[in-house]
Specification:
By secondary structure, this protein is of the alpha+beta class. It is built from 5 helices and 10 strands. A hairpin with a 5-residue loop joins strand 2 and strand 3. The longest helix is centred in the first third of the chain and has 17 residues.
Length: 222
């Protein structure tokens, strides 16, 4: 069985807006030399990211959902950490486990700073992803990962807030369906602000680790 996870459709407009924002940011960093032979002002050092920079986005700003144990979790409780949020489902054949495995690898590669990274997995398949299954699934990758399990009505609203696309693809039996879904992670800085969207397969663990290091440092621009 092959994965049907996708990165386009729902998030294409978001990337376009992010690209425009990045272009405007680049233009604003150009030298502003005065007339009459005045020396140009020195350029400010700006951190560049491997993932798509969506700093200032008006979406993906709020996350308030129950975890696998029924406890409501919010982004604010993870202040001081870089939070990585990924939407998927436990029956996903490749994209979801690969994403979680790479994030776990990144945490290990960061050493002590790995404790400042919080992985959050949000299921898009609450019908099959029971609390017990979800909890065991994420802990299999990293003991500190958290799984969120929204109710179907909550999931629809959450998908709109995060511009996440998902759709059932029928299988041979009623419970053997797969899901088409947006394949990428939202990344938040230690202040709880959404900063990046990391597309699946774009750069691998090292690229993600480099971005997280910048967010953990004081050099990444807000």
């Amino acid at each position: 069985m092959t994965s049907r996870c996708i990165t386009h459709r729902a998030s294409r407009r978001s990337f376009t807006l992010a690209g425009v924002s990045s272009l405007l940011l680049a233009l604003s960093g150009c030298d502003r030399g005065g007339s009459g032979g005045e020396a140009a002002q020195p350029k400010a050092t700006v951190a560049t990211f491997n993932a798509v920079d969506i700093t200032g986005a008006d979406y993906a700003g709020k996350l308030e959902m129950p975890d696998a144990q029924g406890k409501v979790r919010t982004l604010s409780e993870f202040k001081g950490k870089v939070v990585v949020v990924f939407f998927g489902y436990t029956h996903c054949p490749d994209v979801c486990p690969t994403t979680l495995a790479e994030l776990a690898e990144v945490k290990r590669s960061l050493g002590a700073d790995g404790d400042k990274v919080q992985g959050i997995f949000v299921t898009l398949d609450p019908e099959r992803d029971t609390p017990e299954l979800l909890s065991a699934y994420v802990k299999n990758f990293d003991a500190g990962f958290i799984a969120l399990r929204p109710e179907p009505t909550q999931l629809k609203a959450l998908a709109r807030e995060f511009k996440v696309f998902y759709m059932k693809v029928p299988g041979k039996t009623d419970d053997a369906y797969t899901l088409d879904h947006t394949a990428g992670s939202y990344i938040y800085d230690p202040q709880g602000r959404v900063r990046l969207f990391s597309r699946y397969g774009a750069g691998g663990p090292q690229a993600l680790a480099d971005d997280i290091k910048k967010l953990l440092s004081n050099t990444a621009p807000a």
